[in-house]
Structure formats: C-alpha cells, structure tokens
Specification:
Blueprint (H helix, E strand, L loop, with lengths): L5 H4 L9 H10 L3 E5 L4 E3 L7 E7 L2 E6 L5 E7 L4 E2 L1 H5 L8 E4 L3 E7 H5 L6 H29 L4 H16 L3 E3 L4 H8 L3 H13 L3 E4 L2 E4 L10
Antiparallel strand pairs: 1-8, 2-7, 3-6, 3-8, 4-5, 4-7, 9-11, 10-11
Length: about 230
C-alpha cells in the first residue's frame, strides 16, 4: 500500500479531495512508487509520454540536451509538484526532455490515461482531478513562458537580473533563495558557467546584489550598459 504522506496530500492534483479517499483513488489511477539515486534518469528523452509523476521527496529536473550535448534546465520540480504531465496529456510519442533526479528522490507515477478516463471506483472525484490537472498544466505553461522571457535576453547580465528580479517579486522581498547551484543556474539561464560567475562577481562589486551559495539579496538596480 502506498503511504499517504504530507507531500502527497499537498499535491495540487488532489486539491478538494479527502485524504481517506486517496488510497482507493491511487489504485484506480495505477499509481506506482519509485525511488532513485541522484543523477538517475527517471524518464528519458525520446521515450513515449504515458505517465504523470508526483514528486514525494527530493528534487528532479527537466533537462533538454541539444545536438552537441549542451544541457539546459527547463524546470526544477519539488516535493508535492507534478512532472511530465503536459507531455502525457498530449500523448507525446517522444518526450522532448529528460526527467533526471537532481538528488535522491521518491515519486509516484500515475497512468495518465486512467486520469483522463473515468472509472467506476473514482468517478465521483474524476471531474475534480481533471479540473485540477488542467490548472496545473496551465500554470506550468506560464512558468515555461517566464523562462522563455528570461533566456530571450541578450546578455548574461540581463538574463541573470531578469531571473533574480522575478524571484524577488515572487518571494515578496529582496532576500530569497533559488533552487539551483551555480552550474544549475547557468544551465537554466542557458549561459556559460564561468561567464555567469564573472558577471555575478561584477554585480557584487558594483553593490547591485549580494549572495552566498543559493541565497541572494538585491541591493539596487544595476546601471545600464554594463556587462557583456
């Protein structure tokens, strides 16, 4: 039996559904428990998209790799969040990204066809799950749009500052943490790591921001026409 954890209860897919109904529903949805070590590929690029993932512990990343092997982090997924749901709902014949364990993690995989098709055991809740899934997909599309706005900027400085300003706005304060280490941030921004580190050092010297590892504090807006 799959345990009903706090992270599972927090999953927006089950918003509005009572905890004592979840066990039966997970069986109807073909839920399978998985656990992976850091760096393991959970879903490989090019494989058919059939499952919706729910992360229970750890962190996973959606990684796109180009022809030359350059990586770009499309999104980081944290406990309680879904992954690969847009591709599974679209019945994509080939995943355009890989889903990789960024650290040791546990997750549930749900058969997407069972989510979208009502069954006799869970039919009373199925419309709610489909509604929740639609909202999740829409929010995920907005997050991908935000990333496109960031990576469309011309310079490393512009990409970095756009990202940090959005993070500060989301946090509602000038000090905040980001879900990436330095290499992960470079991959997300689609820039060279050494160039990113150099730009961050310049911004720190200019008094624009301060940082330690993944913790940042914005001090002021940068002046125009600096950087690359």
């Amino acid at each position: 039996m799959i345990p009903i954890t706090d992270n599972l209860l927090a999953c927006p897919l089950f918003d509005g559904i009572a905890a004592n109904d979840l066990t039966a529903m997970l069986g109807c949805l073909g839920a399978r428990y998985i656990s992976y070590s850091k760096g393991v590929v959970i879903m490989a690029e090019g494989a058919p998209a059939k499952d919706v993932g729910i992360l229970l512990t750890g962190q996973v990343q959606l990684i796109r790799t180009d022809y030359y092997g350059n990586r770009s982090i499309m999104m980081s997924i944290h406990p309680g969040q879904l992954f690969a749901e847009s591709f599974a709902c679209a019945k994509a014949e080939q995943l355009p990204v890989s889903v990789i364990a960024a650290e040791e993690c546990e997750a549930l995989l749900l058969d997407c066809s069972r989510i979208l098709t009502s069954c006799c055991n869970a039919c009373a809740f199925h419309s709610r799950i489909i509604f929740n899934l639609l909202q999740i997909v829409a929010r995920k599309n907005l997050a991908m749009h935000r990333k496109a706005l960031i990576t469309a900027k011309r310079t490393t400085r512009e990409k970095l500052m756009t990202y940090l300003l959005l993070q500060a706005k989301e946090a509602g304060r000038a000090d905040f943490s980001i879900p990436f280490d330095r290499q992960g941030l470079a991959d997300y921004l689609e820039v060279d790591r050494s160039g990113l580190s150099a730009e961050m050092s310049k911004l720190k010297k200019e008094g624009v921001l301060d940082y330690f590892r993944s913790d940042f504090r914005l001090l002021r807006l940068p002046e125009a026409n600096h950087g690359e």
